[in-house]
Design a protein that fits this description.
rod-shaped; two-stranded antiparallel sheet; alpha/beta
């Protein structure tokens, strides 16, 4: 089933009906069905108001994607459960009001597709009932002139409007401008061939509508297939572009990976060179430490010699002091005893020689002390220079270690970058493979859509051929049927004319007997009997 929601205004109130069709309807089928469904609503709601028939002028459909109402100009705009709004033709009892559209309720009428749902070999009464139900649009169990003309128009009866109007007047026995079911049954008894023709023509009409709906559905399917094919081609072209772009990105990623790998190798070489430089500096530092230990040992030995020189100098000074005291005593003794001067001259000379020798030793001790101090200063300077060199080597080793750490960090960063680039490359490869798989799927879908389109085109051709044959058969049948219907109407008119003449003759006969055979007119009666 194909269901649409149709809203409209009835007596200042919005009504929303859920209308079902056997398939997607044409605009003509939609209008007829909506008029029939809302005709029932009008009959139920009109009360004592004198209103005319419900007739539509145009439709609008609400497009969800655009969020607005647009005019309905083609059946292809219809979709399952789409919301429509039916505008009525101008009339004195209707006025459009602004109000929200309520929730839909199911329409109280089935689709026209089942209006002639009777057995394959229906009886005369079943045909009459089916035709009457199809004519009765508003389901009020009466047929007005518009409904009668509409049904005859749908059936394409070969009669003029005047003839159809005359037939309606003949069916309307009580002249109330409406044909009840009993009146229509009597009309069917008078025109059985017309009823048969009307039944089959209506059946042919609805069958043609069904075939036309199927053709429209197939054409819509073909159009949708072509549209899908265009979308598939566009998607295929987009996928081809995506694949080319992915391949270009993959080539770029590969070049970046090669550059990162080369940079990583250079970082590894720099790290190895820095490690070798650190090892060399550490070896030089060890050698300098050994030299410093030897220099310290030499300084200790020189300091020890300097202490020995110092001790000897102190001893020499002590000896010099004793000698000076001895000289003072001698001079005192010389002043006291000049007599003994000559005796002690030789001793004084010896002591003087000793004093000179002690002074010479003292001078040697001072020179040795100066030499020791200079050697100590030189040794201290060498130790300071060695310590400074060791500090410089230590700083250099620290810098080299920092450079090694920085090189290690650069190596790790380069390695992470290479891993990241490898991951990106793998993702690009996976994306490229997915694009290729999608490309194959789209190609398969496009080929399947082409096959479906070809099959649908063949189905349309078959349906069109069948429809043409069907229309040819209907045309031939109508041509053969037309003189029969005209003959039936002429015969019915002749019969009605004869019945009228018979009625007139019977009336004249009754009048004649009434005037000639009344009581008191015996002479005339006798003369008549004699004659």
């Amino acid at each position: 089933m194909f269901t649409v929601l149709v809203a409209s205004d009835l007596f200042g109130e919005k009504v929303n009906l859920e209308v079902e069709f056997a398939m997607r309807p044409s605009l003509k089928q939609l209008g007829e069905m909506v008029e029939k469904c809302y005709g029932i609503e009008v009959e139920e709601r009109k009360g004592s108001r004198d209103v005319g028939r419900y007739k539509t002028s145009r439709f609008q459909v609400f497009e969800e994607g655009r969020g607005k109402w647009v005019d309905l100009v083609s059946g292809n705009q219809l979709s399952e459960y789409c919301q429509l709004y039916a505008f009525q033709q101008p009339n004195p009892w209707h006025k459009e009001v602004r109000a929200a559209i309520p929730a839909p309720v199911k329409a109280k009428l089935a689709s026209h597709a089942s209006a002639l749902a009777v057995p394959d070999d229906p009886s005369h009464d079943e045909k009459v009932s089916a035709i009457f139900d199809d004519m009765d649009l508003n389901n009020d169990r009466h047929i007005d002139s518009d409904e009668f003309h509409r049904c005859c128009s749908l059936a394409s009866l070969p009669f003029t409007t005047a003839t159809i109007t005359d037939l309606f007047l003949k069916a309307d026995l009580n002249q109330d401008s409406l044909v009840s079911y009993s009146e229509f049954q009597r009309f069917a008894e008078l025109y059985p061939s017309l009823i048969d023709s009307l039944y089959h023509r209506l059946k042919f009409y609805w069958e043609d509508m069904r075939l036309q709906g199927e053709m429209d559905a197939v054409k819509d399917a073909i159009q949708a297939a072509h549209e899908n094919e265009r979308h598939a081609k566009a998607a295929f072209e987009d996928r081809v572009k995506d694949v080319a772009a992915a391949e270009a990105r993959l080539a770029t990623q590969e070049r970046e990976v090669h550059v990162k790998v080369d940079k990583l190798r250079r970082c590894e070489d720099d790290a190895r060179d820095a490690a070798r430089e650190v090892d060399r500096n550490r070896k030089e530092f060890g050698i300098k430490e050994q030299d410093l230990a030897l220099q310290k040992e030499k300084e200790r030995i020189k300091a020890q010699g300097f202490e020995e020189y110092k001790q000897e100098t102190e001893k020499a000074l002590q000896r010099t002091g004793h000698t000076e005291r001895d000289i003072g005593n001698v001079e005192s003794y010389l002043r006291q005893t000049e007599q003994l001067h000559s005796d002690y001259v030789s001793g004084a000379e010896r002591e003087g020689a000793k004093t000179q020798s002690a002074a010479h030793e003292l001078q040697k001790a001072h020179d040795g002390a100066k030499i020791g101090a200079e050697q100590r200063r030189q040794a201290e300077q060498e130790v300071a220079d060695t310590i400074l060199l060791l500090t410089e080597l230590d700083n250099k080793i620290g810098i080299e270690q920092q450079e090694v750490k920085a090189a290690q960090l650069r190596h790790n960063a380069a390695n992470e970058n290479v891993n990241r680039c490898s991951g990106i490359k793998q993702e690009e490869q996976n994306l490229l493979q997915s694009h290729r798989d999608r490309e194959q799927e789209l190609n398969a879908e496009r080929m399947a859509a082409e096959r479906r389109s070809e099959a649908a085109a063949m189905d349309v051709k078959t349906i069109e051929d069948q429809n043409n044959e069907f229309h040819n058969e209907i045309s031939e049948t109508n041509e053969r049927e037309r003189p029969l219907l005209e003959q039936e109407i002429r015969l019915r008119e002749q019969r009605d004319s004869l019945e009228l003449k018979e009625t007139a003759l019977r009336t004249d006969q009754k009048t004649f007997y009434h005037h000639n055979y009344q009581p008191g007119a015996g002479t005339n009666q006798t003369s008549l009997r004699r004659k």
